[in-house]
Each structure stands twice: as C-alpha cells, then as structure tokens.
Amino acid sequence: TGAVTYDPGFMNTANAKSSITYIDGDEGILRYRGYPIEQLAEKSSYLEVAYLLINGELPTKGQLDNFVAQVERRTLLDERFKRLFDGFPRDGHPMAVLQAGVSGLSTFYQDSLDPFDEEQVRISAVRLLAKLPTMAAYAHRIAQGHALLYPDNRLSLIENFLRLTFGFPVEEYVADSVVVRAMEQLLILHADHEQNCSTSAVRLVGSAQANLFTSISAGIGALSGPAHGGANAAVMEMLDQIQAGGMDPRDFMEKVKRKEDGIRLMGFGHRVYKNYDPRARIVKKIADDVLERLGVHDERLELAMKLEEIALKDDYFVERRLYPNVDFYTGIIYKAIGFPTEMFTVLFAIGRLPGWIAQWEEMIHDPETKIGRPRQIYTGHAERAYTEMSERT
Ligand code: CMC
User: Fold this and answer.
1) 270 given a catalytic annotation
2) Is 286:186 a contact under the CB 8 Å cutoff?
3) Which superfamily, per CATH, for 231-337?
4) What is the number of the ligand 1 atom nearest to the C-alpha of 197?
C-alpha cells in the first residue's frame, strides 16, 4: 500500500486545517481566533472566550448575555450523579471521577447525542460548560468527605464553582474579586492550544463519529498524564519534594541535567514554544497578585523563581530552549486559593473544555475530515505456524 511516513509523536504531521488557535513557538505568540492571549486574559471572561472559540467571533452584549444565561441555568446535576460519585473510593483521583462523570452524560442526555445535528451539539456544549465545574467541585468534596452542595444560580459560573468547591459562605469568595478574576484568567489561558495531546484525542475519537460527551471524556483522560495536564500537579510535587528533603535548588538542577532517574524540571519545556511561553508570563503576574491579596507567603514561589533563575542562565536549558511553561506557576496560585494538588489538573480540564468543544465542532463540520487512523511500520515476526501447547517450551 505504498510507503508510509514514520513520524512518532506527529512531530511533523498536521492532522487538521484549523482556524481556531495560532501559535508561533519561536516568537512566543498565542492567539485565539486572531486575538492575542494577553488581551483576552486582561479583558475577557471565561464564557466570552468559550463563545469566541466555539463561534469564531466575539459576542455582542445580547449574544453573550444569552449564552451566559443558558450555561448558568444548567449547572445542576441529576441526583443520580451524586450516587455515582459517592460510589467511588474517596482516595480515587478526581480526574478519574471527572472523566467518568462526563462519560456518564451520554446516558442522561440521549436527546443530544447526534454529532451532525447542530442544535443537539449546541445544547451538549452548553451542558458541558455548565456541568463540568459542578462535577469538578463534587469530585473535590467527595474526596474531602464533605456534603455536596447545590449550585446557586444567582452566582456566576466561576463564583458558583468556588462556592460548590469550598462551601464557604457565598460572600467570602464572591466578594473577593481578585480570586474570582484570577480563576477566570487562568481558565482563559488554558482554553485552547491547537493540536495538543488531549485535543488530538478529542478529535480522533470524534472522527469515529462518537458523540461530544464521549469525545470530551477521552480528552480528560489524555490530559491526566503528567507529560500534559498532569504537569501542574507534578510541579507542585517536585517543589514539595525539594523542600521536604531540604535540597539545595542547585543540587536538584544538577540531577536534572544528569537526567538522574529520568527526572525533568517539571513545568519547563514545550513541544511548540522554544521561547518563553506567553501564558507563563501572565501566570507569574497573577501569582503575585493573588498571594498578595490573600496574604499568603509561600516559600515554594521563591523556590520556583530560584529554579527558573538557574535554568535561564544554564547552558543545558538554554541550548535546548527550555523555558517555563504555563504549568510552572499555576499550582502556587491554586494552592493559595485552597485547592489540593490533585485538583490542579481538574482545573486545567475546565479551562481546556471550550477549546475541545470548538475543535470537535470544527472537525465535525470539516468535509475533509476522515476517521483518524495512523499507519504503522510493522516490526514483528514474519508468518509462522501455530505451535501446539505441548510443543512450547
Ligand atoms: N527538564 C529537563 N530536560 C528537559 C525537559 C525538562 N523539563 N524538557 C525537555 N528536556 C530535554 C530532553 O531531555 C531532551 O534532551 P536531549 O536532547 O539531551 O535528549 C530535550 O530537552 C528535548 O526534549 P524532548 O522530550 O524531546 O521534547 P518534547 O518536545 O518531546 O517534550 C515536553 C516536550 C513538554 C513533554 C517536555 O519538555 C517535558 O517533559 N517537560 C516537563 C513536563 C511538562 O512541564 N509538561 C507540560 C507541558 S505544557 C502544558 C501541557 O501541554 O499540558
């Protein structure tokens, strides 16, 4: 069937034509639908960015109000979800709980599973945007052994999420606009990143015409890996270990450079950015603001800054063009707000959801889409005859 191109990790293979996100890794540029990430992080909201990614244009006030109202009125989960979540072991990872929950949506919303019916897809997308934060909060509360709360739809999606997660009196977080704004900004920064591993998983599963919920649950599975979304938690674990072991940051960096036990400086390096990740710059600023506002002093922030300082001057990192990525400082902010480390990747999933939806819809509408089906280079045995059990050694 002709020669195939061997390209592990799809380093040079484009699987899609896409008009959603533009990245210039050499220049450190990221744009959603043409808008620079810096402007969106400063001026926009999570749901406005979701609208932009999915529909291609910024909404008018009327369009946004309507979209937000549709999402915010659907935050409630069917009671049976509580039993589903309650049935998992308390120490189960919240990403696994989230993935199972999203997968379960296909059983509750059988009226909106047709990938080719635009209205059904629209309502599925709204349901996902509304319910993922509620599921995320429940995954957290169950792990803590705390009662599940009902959404309060007088609150915005993000305020609701914070309240459902922490159970604090509404005023405490809602009044704290710095925290709410920081959450919005972090979600915006994660909202899309073209053909990353989880987005490619969403497209691949969707290319088999699986429904949107099932495709998104595949994305959540991919995101849970430590080389992808799991990196934000891995950064925190790394900082904790260095601190707990009383290790000198320089000694740790020497171990990284010697590739001892395969350790890497987590939160550093990127397949596409070979210059500073533009998201990391914004995250650093948010970290400063949130820690100051909450009056949190976290030595891990200083440790992270020290590691970055060493890396930026070290030949190993400079030659390989390794810079902090989006995950390097996010964990410190999440910790300051009160999230345990296991929840970090769940927050990334909420952030990435609009991008997954937009990319899935683009894939479904693209007449050039084919079922994802890579080739291989076979390295196994040539034909051989079946060996009877009695003759095997
Ligand atoms: N620490 C130490 N060395 C590194 C690191 C690191 N974080 N990242 C790459 N290298 C080295 C690697 O060992 C290799 O060196 P050599 O040429 O001597 O073999 C060289 O740099 C190229 O690395 P690679 O693994 O071929 O690069 P890649 O494009 O396949 O990997 C990456 C990209 C993000 C998986 C990798 O940089 C990494 O493992 N980073 C740490 C994990 C992390 O922070 N991931 C989050 C990525 S951003 C958010 C997301 O996508 O979810």
Assistant:
1) yes
2) yes
3) Cytochrome P450-Terp, domain 2 (1.10.230.10)
4) 51
Cα Rg of the chain (Å, integer): 22
Nearest CA to ligand 1 atom 38: 269
How large is the ipTM?
0.95
Q: Whose CA is nearest to atom 35 of ligand 1?
A: 227
In the chain, beta strands by DSSP E = 21-24, 29-32, 35-36
Q: How many CA atoms lie within 13 A of 112 on its CB side?
A: 17
Pairing assessment for the beta strands 35-36 and 29-32 based on DSSP bridges: antiparallel
* Host H or E run for residue 43: helix 37-43
Question: Which residues have CB under 6 Å of ligand 1?
Answer: 196, 227-229, 231, 256, 264-271, 320, 322, 325-327
Region 21-225+341-365: CATH code: 1.10.580.10
User: Which DSSP letter does residue 36 get?
Assistant: E
At residue 30, what are phi and psi to the nearest 5 degrees? -135, 125
Residue 389 DSSP symbol: G
Q: pLDDT of 86-116, one tens digit each?
A: 899 999 999 999 999 999 999 999 999 999 9
Ligand 1 probe mutation, 322, 323, 348, most atoms within 8 A of CB: 322
The predicted-structure confidence for 47-94, as pLDDT tens digits, reads as follows 999 999 999 999 999 999 999 999 999 999 999 998 999 899 999 999
Check 298, 327, 365, 381 and give the catalytic one: 327
Q: Where are the domains of the chain?
A: 21-225+341-365, 231-337
Compute the distance from residue 241 Cα to the ligand 1 centre, in Å: 20
Q: Where do the DSSP E strands lie in 35-103?
A: 35-36
How wide is the angle at C-alpha 230 spanned by C-alphas 300 and 49, nearest 5°?
A: 95
Beta strand spans in 164-295 (E): none
For residue 164, how far is its CA from the centre of ligand 1 (angstroms)?
35
